[in-house]
Amino acid sequence: MTLPSRVQSRLFALSQRLRQCQAELKLLDAEERFEEHDALCEGEFMSIFRDTCALVQEEHATNPPYLLELISEVQKIHNKGIGYAYGIGDLYDFMASWAHDDAAGRTLIVDRSEAALSLPHATIPMMLEMLNIDPEIAMQKVGKIRPDPWHSSMKRHSKSTVLARFRPDLPALSATRSTPLAASIYDARCEVTSIGSISPIKVRMSGKNSCMAMIGACGHKNRAPGLNFCLPDDSLGVRFLDPRLSGVATQMAMDEDLQMIFIGDRDRIKSFAWGDDEGLYRELSPVHTLDSTCSDGPIAVLPNGRVVRAGVGGVASWVIDELETHRFEGEIIGDELDPGQTSRDDPSEIELSSGSSRSSFIRFTQHPNLTPTVWEPLPSNPSTLICAEHFDLIKYGCVSVDLEYGGKTAARYLGHGGAVSDFSVSATDPRVFLTACHDGYARLFDVRQPLPVITLDACGADALCEAIVLAHPDGIPTVFTGTGKHEQIKVWDIRARTPVYELATGNNAVKSLAWDSKRNCLYAATECMYMDRMGYRHDYRPGNIPKESGESIEELHEGDYEQCWPIGAWHAEDYFGYTFDAGNQRIFRYAFKENPDVTVLPAYGDARVDEYDPFCINLHPVRSSLVNVSRPLADNYKMVNIPKTRRTYCKGKSCKKHTPHKVTQYKKGKDSIFAQGKRRYDRKQSGYGGQTKPVFHKKAKTTKKVVLRMECTVCKYKMQLALKRCKHFELGGDKKTKGAALQF
Known about the structure:
By secondary structure, this protein is α+β, with helices and mostly antiparallel strands.
């Protein structure tokens, strides 16, 4: 539908403002007028986004027939601005929220940290020491530099777990005595257990909470797919299954009616059943193999008996009842694959079925280039999926598509200042959904409104918001958010508009969250960022563990080599009431109960200081009164490992985005004298017709080649970047006189 002329003129004016602002920013940056540049970023540039939201809000109030077209045009303006801000403009690491409006009821909930500086606990004193700043003077100017040690008085309830740290000065919360489930959550009354797992990618709970499953990577250098699963109604705990795919599985969907898990790598989908009408299976049973070539996006099971997978411009569809099944071990579905075409180190473990071909392909008629990266079916209408657009195409939108009506776009949602990384819905309130975004915010949407109704500052403009869960214990909306950098889970009371507390994860990054509403349990898939793909732990120091959790920080063990602590950990040992480091990948289970056994806590990990580290950069630690170390530690342990990092684009299959990379220099062993001479001879002979004698010419300059080895901290994908540095220049010489320089 054509937009009215008055709306078109306002959109044109906003686009013109954006172009002019970008031109001014380029000019100020070229002239190195950085103060004016920053003021323009925070002023006019951000106001353009706020004005576009105001336009949408005004038009939405009248519910015009052209609203969807208007939102699409506004999203184009947002895409251009956000792409410039993160691209050639390089304006922000994390874009501030611009879609909230407290006056209009679209609230921004901010988490005020206890410390003034949002930095890892060991970084602050090192930074002050390097800048030669007295810690007491810094505290007078900016306030508290590091949080106070944990104390039992911080507990909200006598049964609160010691792995929770509550926010000070909390307002009245939503839970009351009449809502015991919600009260147990807001009081952090829970039992915390954990178990080692594969390297996690995504964890999900089935619709009726009968199965929990997590996909990830395992094997040599994490090149093989893996599946951890748990059936809470049996007593067998978390188990492992090799799905026998050619690559690491990155997508997963679950269906409670079929009692099946569908997982997929880039080319195939495999389904596994966890039970039937007679009961639960002891192990997962393989059922289908689907050929999903050219459709490597997210997977969903529709209520009409179809399984679909997203691709470029549409979704591939299979009718489940018409599919071949693996009736017995070794039966091939479709053609037989070549096991050599894989990155796995164990090709003999691959199941060789090419899979059943798709039944049909549903195209997105209104958006032919839409490529969903993550989606979630709406509980009220499972054939309608909330989709995140592919941010590599400089698209940061969120749309809902109805696959029952040929992929028609049902609605658009604005407000994301980065790529959407996850969705969460709750059957208790099917009208709302929650999004996690790489700009560090979580946003709660009403499906009937294009702008977020609540924005949560989950990461303080300091990290990616990667994992979220929306729950409704006793009907009270509650949000859990997790991130990798801050190594914690935050709990939010939506009605009270406040964060309540943090949950410890043992210095592990939170990759994915799942909620078991039947048992009032939270599952967290976490990854130890201090462990490489070979299983070695890096950058650990002896721990400084209080004699008993909750005692004064003055009473410490000497450097504890049995209980080590990561040097780069976000929290100090005294931040929570129980000190522990996971030291490996783990699935955590937080079981909230009215009367929990608070002594149920996870075991300390087995990381050690002296584990093998092939890339070691040794630096002396900084001595400071703010560092939580004892004197024997400072005297005896003087070498630490501080890795260099760089944020760059990761080509790994599970990332395809900008992530932090660990950077080391690749050093090749020295060749033999014969190999060096042969290499020089071959290089000189190339291009000269194959003469039998070497032809040597002076070069205008000589260069040294330096190779950087970069490893993604998220998916562990490794790549190399060759740099050429000029060593010196030579003007050349007289061919008749050896070594003679040119005369001027």
